[in-house]
Specification:
8-stranded parallel β-barrel, alpha/beta, binds phosphoenolpyruvate
């Protein structure tokens, strides 16, 4: 048996989506996986039992892994936890609950305050999605579900339960796909969590046990899920407690199927309304008519409930945790909902209405300006232009990047294709995905990075031998050169996709010119074999030796892209995911900046361009220094595109260059950060 511990670094702890990622991975192994937190223990393959542990940010959990593949399972799970359980850094930041309104700063979530100033009645809750809505109240009352409690016999009820699960799974997958295609690809994963709850082994065995004791399938599901929701609500971490709403949503869905009540979207009046409800379920959020739902006010719920996450993704102003009084507000009365302040004013006065109209106009103008400028170029006040591209990991991201105003893709991490697949994706599968990504970018350049696995990113079917020091081992270009057929298939797929738009190819982890020459030769032979046109080829600068030899490499490559994440880890010899050291692995260390300066100088001397695709590109303190060092392109996550563009528009290049010059002379990263404040 393997026993090991890990610290959960996700800012919101093991909430639904990271827990789902963990369970999804755990289920791929035969070994029994148990997780201990304090004196509680959970089945590592049961989402519900993991959620019930209430694991918060910074908590240490212990894994007990027992079975034939315990080693592989431990390596994979440990890696997943170090990598943030599927939450990229930006997502993790985005997942922070929004600031509560001043009225709720007393520690109680969603403190309630009524102000009777003779004006309209104001109810205070917690801001959940920004924006101002003015319209009539519509009380959304959940339908009563009448369930059959009489059992038709154990076998019959088991069969009914299975059929209902299959139906619910189909409905949820359709909901997820519909939402993903409309507006919120990453938020659509909420419904994967619901599917997971349906298949949770602990839930299923409890339901079967209830059926075996003579309960109907409906009663078994209702009692089992009610019990789990009640347990979750007791957790002190409000974020985890909010997951009870997901269990209730799944419970309603399956009970409606079992009782033969059609699951239809709640009907809204045929004019815009502010929906008021005790709790709006994620299913309601995904199906309610968005043209008519202009705002949401919930008596219960918190800012990190899935309904709130969806409201933000869909751009619908929302206030949550407003307390019971909102339920008593008359249907059809006029109201103002302010999602920034977390307030709902019922029956507003004329003065309140005109103030709200002004606030609404201002908000809409700010949004419109930001949206309009997100597609405008980023030019400093003294006329220096920097290209802002996006880092992506799939087709949905590509669409998000194009919509966010990215001027191209600076880094397509192709690993997603290989890591998420049980076998190596075929050349044709790869080609189709690369082609779709290039097409989605509508003529903007896409830089695809060849497979960067090994080290911290193992892939089961590649049968990689365990290494003592994987980050210094066979990763990135080293692994591909040792498996030339794998790289050749990827290069063929990429070269074929290049016929559909401006695709560029870059190679990760180049430490030595011989590696570059070998992959260049292979790329050229693939190109000739396919009769494909020239494709610009570049390398990542993420190993110090490549930065130090940039003058030599620059003569041979078409471009450089600096991977500051790895360049920092290898320059400072600090594991970028080390729970203690990672915080000190700062890309603003002058040692790293000197390597960047040297790379830029070497490239520009021979007319080549340099991008940065590490996290530092979007760090508000690093952006001016990197621009000042002369990089031509910054590639950041799609949500950061407009922010980085705005930061560049606010800066003066001559000043940035002067600060960057001083930064190179600083003694450490802390001094650099003082400079760039
Ligand atoms: C980097 O190392 O900075 C980089 C962008 O590559 P990755 O984070 O995928 O290793
Ligand atoms: Mg890297």
């Amino acid at each position: 048996m393997k026993q090991w511990s890990a610290v959960i670094r996700n800012p919101t702890g093991l909430h639904a989506r990271p827990a789902w990622t963990l369970v999804d991975a755990a289920k791929r192994f035969a070994a029994d996986i148990r997780i201990q937190h304090g004196n509680q223990s959970a089945n590592g393959k049961s989402l519900i039992s993991i959620l019930a542990l209430g694991v918060e940010h910074g908590a240490e959990i212990t894994f007990l892994v027992n079975g034939v593949d315990e080693n592989e399972a431990s390596v994979a799970l440990e890696k997943l936890i170090y990598e943030g359980l599927g939450e990229p850094m930006d997502m993790q930041n985005a997942a922070q609950p929004q600031k509560e309104s001043s009225n709720s700063s007393n520690g109680t979530p969603a403190a309630l305050a009524h102000q009777s100033s003779g004006a309209g009645r104001e109810v205070r809750g917690t801001p959940a999605a920004p924006g101002v809505a003015i319209g009539r109240i519509f009380q959304l009352v959940p339908p009563q579900i009448q369930i059959d409690t009489a059992s038709l016999g154990v076998d019959a009820e088991k069969a009914r339960s299975q059929a209902a699960v299959a139906q619910a799974q189909t409905d949820l997958a359709a909901l997820r796909d519909d939402l993903a295609s409309r507006a919120a690809p990453s938020e659509a994963a909420i419904f994967d969590v619901h599917i997971e709850i349906l298949h949770d082994p602990d839930v299923r065995s409890q339901v079967e046990a209830c059926i075996a004791t003579g309960q109907s399938a409906a009663a078994a599901w209702r009692n089992t899920l009610h019990e789990h929701a009640t347990e979750l609500k007791k957790i002190s971490d409000p974020l985890l407690a909010e997951r009870a709403a997901d269990i209730n949503d799944v419970s309603n869905r399956i009970l409606r199927i079992l009782s033969g009540q059609p699951i239809t979207a709640p009907q809204l009046p045929n004019h815009p309304v502010i929906v008021v409800a005790r709790d709006v379920t994620p299913s309601d959020m995904a199906t309610l008519d968005r043209r008519r739902m202009i705002g949401i006010c919930m008596a219960d719920g918190g800012p990190m409930a899935h309904a709130s996450i969806l409201a933000r993704a869909l751009g619908i102003p929302a206030v949550v945790g407003s307390g019971d009084d909102v339920i008593a507000l008359a249907d059809g009365s006029m109201a103002i909902l302010n999602g920034m302040e977390g307030s709902l004013i019922a029956n507003p006065t004329r003065a309140q209405l005109s103030a709200a109209e002004q606030a609404q106009a201002k908000w809409q103008e700010q949004r419109a300006q930001a949206a309009a400028l997100s597609h405008a170029p980023a030019t400093t006040q003294d006329g220096h232009r920097v290209e802002i591209a996006a880092n992506i990991g799939g087709i949905e991201d590509a669409r998000g990047a194009a919509a966010a105003g990215a001027e191209g893709v600076g880094l397509l991490r192709t690993e997603f294709l290989f890591v998420d697949s049980p076998t190596e994706p075929s050349e044709q599968t790869q080609y189709e995905i690369y082609r779709d990504i290039v097409t989605a970018m509508g003529g903007a350049p896409v830089i695809a990075r060849t497979l960067d696995i090994g080290g911290d990113k193992p892939v089961a079917y590649l049968d990689m031998s365990a290494e003592k020091n994987p980050l210094l081992g066979e990763r990135g270009i080293r692994l591909c050169l040792n498996r030339p057929d794998l790289l050749r298939r990827q290069l063929r797929a990429l070269m074929r996709a290049a016929a559909h738009g401006p695709l560029r190819i870059m190679f990760p982890m180049v430490a030595e010119i011989g590696e570059w020459r070998a992959v260049r030769a292979m790329a050229e032979s693939v190109r000739v074999e396919l009769g494909a046109p020239e494709v610009p080829l570049g390398i990542m600068i993420e190993v110090p030796s490549a930065a130090l030899m940039a003058d030599v490499l620059a003569r041979e490559v078409d471009f450089f892209s600096i991977g500051t994440n790895d360049l920092t880890q290898y320059t400072l010899a600090m594991d970028r995911q080390h729970p203690v050291l990672a915080a000190q692995a700062d890309a603003l260390h002058p040692a790293v900046l000197r390597l960047i300066a040297r790379t830029v100088e070497a490239a520009h001397a021979v007319g080549k361009w340099v991008g940065i695709c590490g996290e530092a590109a979007a760090d508000p303190q690093a952006t001016p220094i990197l621009v000042g060092l002369g990089v031509d392109e910054l590639s950041v996550s799609p949500p950061s595109v407009s922010l980085v563009k705005a930061a560049i528009r606010a800066m003066n290049f001559a000043q940035a260059a002067s600060i960057a010059g001083q930064a190179l002379l600083c003694a450490n990263a802390a001094e650099v950060r003082v400079l760039s404040k």
